[in-house]
Structure formats: C-alpha cells, structure tokens
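Q: What does the assembly look like in three dimensions?
Context provided by user:
Components: two
Sequences:
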Amino acid sequence: MNLGIDATYLEEEFSGIKSFLLNFLLGLKKEKIPFEVFLFFKEKVLKLSEIDLLSFLKTLPKKKTFFIKLQKSIFLSFYFAKKA
Amino acid sequence: MPKRLKKFKIDIFFSPNNFLPILKGAKKEIIFLHDIFWKINPSWKGMFFKIYATLFQKMSLKRADLILVPSRKVKTDLLKYYFLKGLEEKIKLLYEGVDEIWMTIQDKEIFEIKKKFSLPDNFLLFVGNFEPRKHLKTLILVFEKLKKEFPDLNLVIVGKKIKISKELWQKIKEDKKIHYFSNLPYFSLFAIYRLAQIFFLPSFYEGFGFPLLEAGKSNIPIVASFAVKEILQDHPFLKDPHDIEGFTQVIREILKKPYLRQKIVKYQKQRLKEFSSLNMVKNFLSFLDFFLKTDKF
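A: Here is the predicted structure of the complete assembly.
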C-alpha cells in the first residue's frame, strides 16, 4: 500500500497547517510503518523514508500562499482589464 | 495532483488542509479538517476564500472516505452546518501533537536567535494569523494597559497578515514596544517561545489552537480564551475573549508572582503530555488499520 500526502504546505510561509503537517511527518518518520509514504510537492514527489525532513526544509524556497497568489492574480486581471 | 497520484500508484491520499483536489486520483481519500470558522462567522474570512470554500468544502466532505478533526468542537460544527448522508460515521477525532525534537533547542541557539531578531528581554507572545477570529483588538488593549504598569514589557507577534483593520494595524506598526514577525523558520519560533514571559491567545474561535501546544511544551504560562477549553480543560487562566480586565489581571499576577508561573507550567505539562507527534501518528495509523481491516474504508 502507498500513502500519498499533499506536502505543498511545507513550501509555503508560516501557517498552522504547515506546523501541523511538519509535526505529523516527524511523528510518521519515527514510527515503523508497513507502507511507503510519498510526499507530493509542487514540482516533485519524494519518499518520506529517503529524506531528512529538517535539512530538507532548509532547502525549500519560501513561496506565497495559494490564496495570496489567487487574490493577487485576480486583482491584477481587474486592474489591467480596466486600464485597457 | 490526480495524474501524479496515479503515476505513483497511491492507494490512500491524505490532504492536511480541509480540501481534496477536484479530481480523484487515489482509491481512498482522507482530509484533516482544521475548522470551518468561515461558516460560523462569515465576516471572519475574506471573499475569495469564502467563494473557494463554498465551492469545494461540501464536495470534499462528500467524497472523503475519512474526515479527521482536531477537536470535538469541530465535529459538532461540521454536523451543524453540513447535512450529508453518512457524514457522522466518517468523522474521527485526531488530536494534534508537537514533536519532541523542538524541545532540544540549546541555550546558545536561543541566544543567537534573540540577537538575530533583536528580541527584547521581557515580552508577551502571540502566535497566529492576523484575522478577526484571533481577536487582536483584545491583545493590543490588554498590552496597552499592562505596559503602563510594566514599562519594560514588550509584545512580540508572530503571524501572517490576512485580515486586520487599518486602525489596529497602524497601532501595531507605530508602537515601538510591539515587535512583529511574519515568516520565521519554524525552529526559531521555539526559541521565541522559550524567551517569552507569557503566551497570550485571546481568540473568539479555535478549532484546536496549535500554538498552545507549542507554548505549553516550551514551558511558558498560557493565558487564553475559553475557545481552547477542550484542550486546556481546567486551566485557571481561561477568560471570555472580551474580558480585557480579566486578562490584564491574570497576566499581571503571573508577572508579579513567579510561583504562580511554576504552578501553571506544571499543570500545562501534565495536561499536554498526551499531545505528542507520536500519539498523533499512532492514532492516525490505528484509523487506517481499522478501516483497511474492516473494509469500511
């Protein structure tokens, strides 16, 4: 059996979800689990068993959250539509 | 996401934040639903989020095979606002937990972080997003009262600015005793917890209140609203979120009486012991096991 986890929140700025997920993965890494865990990032997929979570986090770029990006893109569309 | 899930032959997909992808990519799907506070008070969240959540929350709840919630309160809220067949049976309580690794931070590292972020010696701490449900107005009003009595007291705020009134934001920016940080490395946050005098969370609503765990595990006294009663239970410093006098009084007491601080830290340590990352994962795995064995998944 394979478990897939949406890990994109680890790539984003400080949030409660990021804190929850990080602690969850740290716990998961300590437990002996009889299946493989795949972490789905925006551009890559990694096996939890093959990464050192804390070192890996330092390599991730800080990105804007989804909703901030969404709001920004909608605002810019309206702005340029009005200007045109 | 669905294409990638199929490519890696994922049997079970876990979304740690309320929603599932629009298309299904795994045989079974699990969501962790932190809260639905935007349903409880729509004015607490922005328009874009509400449109998104209205479109996708119901779909996610319908499709999920298992819905994990961080408190009984969130389960009650879900059943109050969504009338879906079989919903109650799919909801399971999974208390959140903090990993012990964060408690291993050394004094030397704490000192370096204090220097790096120019943190004051004596401060109250708030960690959370700037949004109406967090009730930052009370936080600021209580701090304004206290700083008259304790001139060296500061307020450190760590969080993302999501929805806050111009007036309140102006106050935060102009007050030299208020220090604001928006995006800290998670490790640094635990140094800040360790340096704080008191952690203060006057929220109107919390699904769980993750920073409480972080603060409690860092051995600093917590002063909070009744919104976190399920987690902190008989903690003596829980107040109504509007009770500015009450909050001021208990913070004053803790600042003046070191024995009170020790007493409350001891209570918190005992109460929050079960909220570890290992317990969280063990419970998660037991749910998976049960569902896989009984084929109820």
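Follow-up: The CA atoms of residues 66 and 72 of chain A lie 10 Å apart.
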